[in-house]
Write a structure and sequence with these properties.
- There is one protein chain.
- With about 475 residues, the chain is an alpha+beta fold.
- The protein has 18 helices and 21 strands.
- The longest helix is centred in the N-terminal third of the chain and has 19 residues.
- The protein is globular.
Length: about 475
Amino acid sequence: MTRLLLWLVLILVPAPLVQGCAVNPVTGQRQFVLFSESQEIEMGRQADRDIVASLGIYDDPGLTQWMDEMGQRMAAASERPDLPWTFRILDDPTINAFALPGGFIYMTRGILTHLNSDAEVAGIVGHEIGHVTARHGVVRVSQAQLAQLGLGIGMVLAPDLQPFGEVAGAGLQLLFLRNSREAEREADDLGLRYMTEQDYDPRAVARVFEMLGRASGAEDGERIPGFLSTHPDPGERRGRILERTTGDDPELAGSRDDREGYLQRLEGMTFGEDPRQGYFRQNIFYHPELAFRLDFPSGWRTANTRSEVQGVSPEQDAVLLLGFVEEASPRAARDQFMRGQGMAEVGRSDASIDGLDAAAADFRISQDGQDFRGRVLFIRHGDATYRVLGYSRQAAWGARGESIQRAVVSFRRVADPAILNVQPRRIELVRTDTEMTFEGFVQRHPSTIPADDVGVMNGLRPGQVIPAGTLLKRVVGEGAPR
């Protein structure tokens, strides 16, 4: 039956995509993939550009060089040393790490602030290298391509997706790109091998999974670890790691940990959201560095990325987007926008807003058999031209149009020093001068985050006794106003 299905796939898949069965570089077994290694690398490069544009790179050359050197050493000793390995630290507060096909590895500053040694970082880097060497991402993308031909074929080759059969649609590829439990276990095992070959202590990985399990229950929503969304069951995996690393396996005999050296690298690191890059207070978006604000409709879900600020109505039938355009003139930008396919202008305005040069237009557009109604504003502020775009399905415009129109023209300059001068929270290192309990530490060296979160980021628990001379992290600074 499987041979018959593969034969059907070879007939149905466009010829340029078909690479057929390839040998897994790690296991030596054959696996069905639709991409050559060069295509895999290009896939990663294209996605890397989007990720960097959306999340940004954390500006710490010394820390970046240190992590790159660690990753390059492990990757050079892996089964795929000749990939263009790239290791990045993303300027993102969530606790996350992930890999893209072709050798692109990412860790967020959010996860780095919650780790406590070189070996813990090495465990995560090794795990992500394992996903690339075993071609887990390429396999999942290949399955997603198969699914485009017909859900049945894709599900036979990826049976873990069967429960999603009736709802599979636009989000199907995201479902496919989640690694299976088997892939996660394989990446765990590979990561242990890669890190111990560089003499890192593999027992540190158990501490990472303990931290992830605790952090997943944190009350602060901005810190819920994205790492867990694609890396399930940290408790079960911690137990499995402990079983492997507490024995006498000579292949897992690394001893390097270096807690103090790692913590010194975190001094001054941004913790949590960086309000300098923009923040929401209720439904108002403020950007201190660019000195403006925009009012989003009340009750909408919002998100701020480096490339765009987004808002979605609770009913998910309307959207508001804020970003930049290349054109310097608001009117030229509007004219370019209105030349879009299927666009029909309803009205326009050239009135200035808050003393700023602006051009607006109301429009209708039909795409893929659906009708939309919206309003767009282009406004010049500082050295940039901004685009504020709001739209909804035509049927929802009666309910959403007024709030969208108000939001689009709410762009204003900001001069309030309390907003312009806001600073992020940061990591500060403290060395205990006497023996104390965890409760004594947070009382004597208070942080601007909850005590439970201080415990998670330091690997400490309530009641734990801390020896004198221990280097620990605390968080200082108020961050964005609430």
